[in-house]
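Folded chain entry
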Amino acid sequence: MRIYDIIKKKRDNYELSKAEIDFFIEKYCEGEVTDYQASALLMAIYLNKMNKQETAYLTEAMMNSGDVIDLSGIKGVKVDKHSTGGVGDKTTIALAPLVAACGAPVAKMSGRGLGHTGGTLDKLEAIPGFCIEMQADKFIESVNKHNIAVCGQTASIAVADKKMYALRDVTATVDNISLIAASIMCKKLASGANAILLDVKTGDGAFMKTLDDSFDLAKAMVDIGSEMNRETIGIITDMDEPLGFAVGNSLEIIEAIETLKGNGPKDFVVLCETLGAYMLVLSKTVNSFDEGIQRIRESIKSGDALDKLRVFIENQGGDKKIVDDYSLLPKASKIVEIKASKSGFISKIEAEEVGVSAMILGAGRETKEDELDLSAGIVLNKKVGDYVEKGDTLAFMHFNKEEKLQQAKERLVDAYEIVKEKVEPKRLVYGVVTKDEIKKF
């Protein structure tokens, strides 16, 4: 078998076999297939696309290019949740203890943030002492004992994906549904979960900007999960404006805790309830979505979810006192208010611009080498649909270094649109994708 023939076959728009895809991934990881040959094949895939079967073969080959985690030592049905990323997406921080408090095992491996989207691990490291590195036996023991553990992915998971993504990033071959789906799902499948819930973001602050593309990506990933015998559900959710009010690591930890105390922003609460209910269904903890919603709400009302968060933090070396004392978290030395330049209704808050503004303040990374300021970020004071008078506070910017403040401020101001007529906020959940059907709301 020759890589030349495989490139030519895909260039001419023929379907690749499992053997050909396995050969490409294996030889590319071993260095026998060069970057320029891999680039040629990726461009052929980008232009001619892959069908459902090819995408499943590619995902499986990428999954098997590194370690595949064995979570069979954990009792019950393990459900993993993946978000395609967004601004203010602190969902795992609240959702993991919520679902664990309801009796479902949460064994989650998360990543770091890059660019305007935040990473779960970065947020957790805002908690003093919290450790995101765990040995396999400690990870399994934690889930069996407490129903919850969240750690970083090992470098040896899905080795091919790391090499391929770096190449796609510089060869204009990122925006392909099959390649995106395979990249996400190979890591989820290698992480050992029995079932997978996908939170596919759509809109300005998301990777997928349109509803059609978001549904297509969800369907591709659900098909992969089903092909690999993992029950998989995709939920399409809005990211046209930031999720909740807080954007920035320490600030998002506080908002997640407030949500477990029953004081969360409406959109964030709805998202946690929705995702949590589906996770409980997938884990066989409840029999229906409605029962799942009820259980999630009860765990907040009873305080069980908040107690589980304390246990989670303490078990991974963190200071659980932060749940009741936010002064123990990193705190910015300066806060600046952003005021409305005119009266009217907020018609848009461009999520990506808010995310970039927070990144400039230090809350995110432009490159992998950038050091985060865990206290920096933005707290919105108004959301889409709210009325503001000229001079009202739209948001608060939290920062320590002033050299980039003006640049960040300009991005944040430009993110807002204010109009005379009242605007209704967009819906949060646009639909659900399962192996059997696509429901659009």
Summary: The two ends are 48 Å apart (CA to CA). The mean pLDDT is 94. The chain has three domains: 3-48, 79-324+430-440, 330-419. The CA atoms of residues 258 and 306 lie 9 Å apart.
